[in-house]
Specification:
Number of domains: 2
CATH topology of the largest domain: Alpha/beta knot
Number of helices: 11
Oligomer: single chain
Bound molecules: ligand 9D3
CATH class of the largest domain: Alpha Beta
Helix content: 40-55%
CATH architecture of the largest domain: 3-Layer(aba) Sandwich
Strand content: 5-15%
Order of helices and strands: EHEEEHHEHEHEHHEEHHHH
Strand order of the largest sheet: 2-1-6-5-7
């Protein structure tokens, strides 16, 4: 996979993409990351990349000429071929107006050979870039960033993990079994939020007791089946608390439903205890 990042801050990426799995994937030749400094595609003495918006308003907007000039230097496949899937490459504009980046989208993009990531800055990017240059507009979440650079780094990280050979053997084997479970519709206890699963179950390591906090007994002395059921229960509990939206679109077994009913009962009981304690004082 070749990632090409178009940015006014190429130095921003010295760091986030030089560690861990992404670094190893680069060293192994599984991915390649090219940085393109947008200012190199300006033609004026001041290397101007931005301008005031037509119609007035706050702030500055990235002007179209350097972005189109940069894209033209990249020898991209024609836009129609990119959009039809005939060419295994895509041009992404990172912007707050984009479609939400998801694990499913990452899987789709991981099948390509080349991804050009255009990082927006200032108050936005001339809309002709979204309309005529980029194939898709992507946001990484509902919060306001200072530019597309963090979004591009997030996308590179997420997509790199999906490239064959990027993860260690153990991890990739687990990933495979997860994908198989998803396809078969029999989600295991260790599925994560990826692809609309549950949140991960809690993990513990040594020591078995730390500052008076013991590791749950079942993990130390339980059998595999008890551990599997405990993990599934904890994953359901955490998902119900932190991401109830994920539960809605999750196939639930009879045992899952029993767990969830117990979790709801526990919660109601705790709330009742809280109210009674408040009433007494
Ligand atoms: C008040 C209007 N703002 C839009 C919400 C203007 C604006 C703020 C910040 C326009 C651009 C930006 C810079 N952000 C990005 O370029 C960006 C982004 C983001 O802000 N959130 C989530 N994903 C992304 S990807 C690129």
């Amino acid at each position: 996979m070749k990632f090409e990042i178009v940015t006014i801050f190429p130095d921003f990426f010295r760091g986030p993409l030089d560690y861990g799995i992404v670094r190893r994937a680069r060293e192994a030749g599984i991915i390649e990351i090219l940085l393109h400094d947008l200012r190199a595609f300006t033609t004026d003495r001041h290397k101007t990349v931005d301008d005031r918006p037509f119609g007035g308003g706050e702030g500055m907007v990235l002007k179209p000429e350097p972005l189109f000039a940069c894209a033209e230097s990249l020898a991209l496949a024609p836009r129609e071929q990119r959009l039809s899937g005939e060419a295994k490459e895509t041009v992404v504009l990172l912007s707050p107006q984009g479609a939400l980046f998801t694990q499913g989208m990452a899987e789709e993009l991981a099948a390509l050979e080349r991804i050009v990531l255009i990082c927006g800055r200032y108050e936005g990017v001339d809309e002709r870039v979204a309309e005529a240059l980029a194939d898709r507009e992507i946001s990484i979440g509902d919060y306001v960033l200072s530019g597309g650079e963090l979004g591009a780094a997030v996308m590179v990280d997420t997509i790199t993990r999906l490239m064959p050979g990027a993860l260690g053997n153990e991890a990739s084997a687990r990933q495979e079994s997860f994908s198989a479970q998803v396809k078969a519709g029999i989600d295991g206890p260790d599925s994560t939020c990826a692809s609309g699963g549950l949140l991960d179950y809690p993990h513990y390591t040594r020591p078995a007791e730390f500052r008076g906090m013991p590791v749950p007994e079942v993990l130390v002395n339980g059998n595999h089946d008890e551990i599997r059921r405990w993990r599934r229960r904890k994953a359901l509990e955490k998902t119900a608390r932190n991401r109830p939206d994920l539960l809605e679109r999750q196939p639930l077994s009879a045992e899952d439903k029993k767990f969830l009913a117990e979790i709801v009962e526990d919660k109601i009981a705790k709330e009742k205890m809280g109210r009674e304690a408040t009433r007494k004082t």
